[in-house]
């Protein structure tokens, strides 16, 4: 058997072992082509099948309605911070941004470069420990869009439910919780996500966009940065990240084999509960960052009561084989990322390690 680390990385992060093994098998000879997917033309019949199937599979698996396009882009979620306002924030309009962490701040900053962006709500004063209540969101009926970050990778908070913004287009950065649970896609005008947490390797960015919203995009956008370009060309306007898309397709097949998004969601809840239960039963030895009701099922952020002890905790965890448990460099503390592909056993091992560490100290 292969030795796999207890991988709790925040992204890029764990991929399913089965997917890696299949990719390994197909690496030198993909379906008799005598070459890997990396080596073939993005205009070849073989690649076209990989590409088209991945799009179709995501639509089916995630229950994406007919009137949405799925795009595979590059530049990470960070490029979406720019592309979104470039395409949809027109002169004379305002876009409203909900600030729930560092990534929302970055999205907002880029929008301000290109147009009039305002803050619809912010939980910064509370050190981003919570998601705002729906009635705290201030946006206007004529806004170009309202932007939210569905899961805050660094602070470990997540929207448990999404607001109904009526006729105002709702846009979400779902980089760190896409495909982790069923979502009513029809609530959103657009969803975007870097693939490197729940979908595959880095290098692919998924955009799910409502066709009626896409129609309203500005025409005055550089070709490569226009959503219309990519939608018109089925994400084959230029060379796409072919190998990443192949891997993404394989991850989708794996999710299917797990029983689909609902089954994966149920397991994600169980996985996160293993760790949150240890935190809650620790009598303050461990403290979670997020308030109840805003807790992320993907990134579990916590501190160890005493700073010296926290250093020791992280050092011993590393020694015990846990990788990626340090909090983001901007906030410190500890963070366990428990994305779709992180096995239940990894979460169980961490929960046991945490209990043992507390018992020893
Ligand atoms: N948004 C969120 C919520 C993220 O977690 C990240 C990356 N960790 C980004 C955006 C930036 O993504 P990328 O590195 O793909 O540009």
Automatic annotation (TrEMBL):
Documented EC number(s): 2.6.1.52
Pathway note: Amino-acid biosynthesis; L-serine biosynthesis; L-serine from 3-phospho-D-glycerate: step 2/3
Catalytic activity as recorded in UniProt: 4-(phosphooxy)-L-threonine + 2-oxoglutarate = (R)-3-hydroxy-2-oxo-4-phosphooxybutanoate + L-glutamate; O-phospho-L-serine + 2-oxoglutarate = 3-phosphooxypyruvate + L-glutamate
Record-linked Gene3D superfamilies: Aspartate Aminotransferase, domain 1 (3.90.1150.10), Type I PLP-dependent aspartate aminotransferase-like (Major domain) (3.40.640.10)
GO molecular function: O-phospho-L-serine:2-oxoglutarate aminotransferase activity
Task of the protein: Catalyzes the reversible conversion of 3-phosphohydroxypyruvate to phosphoserine and of 3-hydroxy-2-oxo-4-phosphonooxybutanoate to phosphohydroxythreonine.
Any matching Pfam family: Aminotran_5
N6-(pyridoxal phosphate)lysine: residues bearing it: 197
Residues bound to L-glutamate: 43
Name of the protein in its database record: Phosphoserine aminotransferase
The family this protein is said to belong to: Belongs to the class-V pyridoxal-phosphate-dependent aminotransferase family. SerC subfamily.
Residues noted as binding pyridoxal 5'-phosphate in the record, renumbered to the chain: 77-78, 103, 153, 173, 196, 238-239
HAMAP family: SerC_aminotrans_5
Subunit details: Homodimer.
Sorted UniProt keywords: Amino-acid biosynthesis, Aminotransferase, Cytoplasm, Pyridoxal phosphate, Serine biosynthesis, Transferase
Superkingdom: Bacteria
Organism taxonomic ancestry: Bacteria, Bacillati, Bacillota, Bacilli, Bacillales
Organism: Kurthia populi
Domain Aminotransferase class V: 6-348
Main location class: cytoplasm
Subcellular location: Cytoplasm
Needed cofactors: pyridoxal 5'-phosphate
Cofactor, free-text remark: Binds 1 pyridoxal phosphate per subunit.
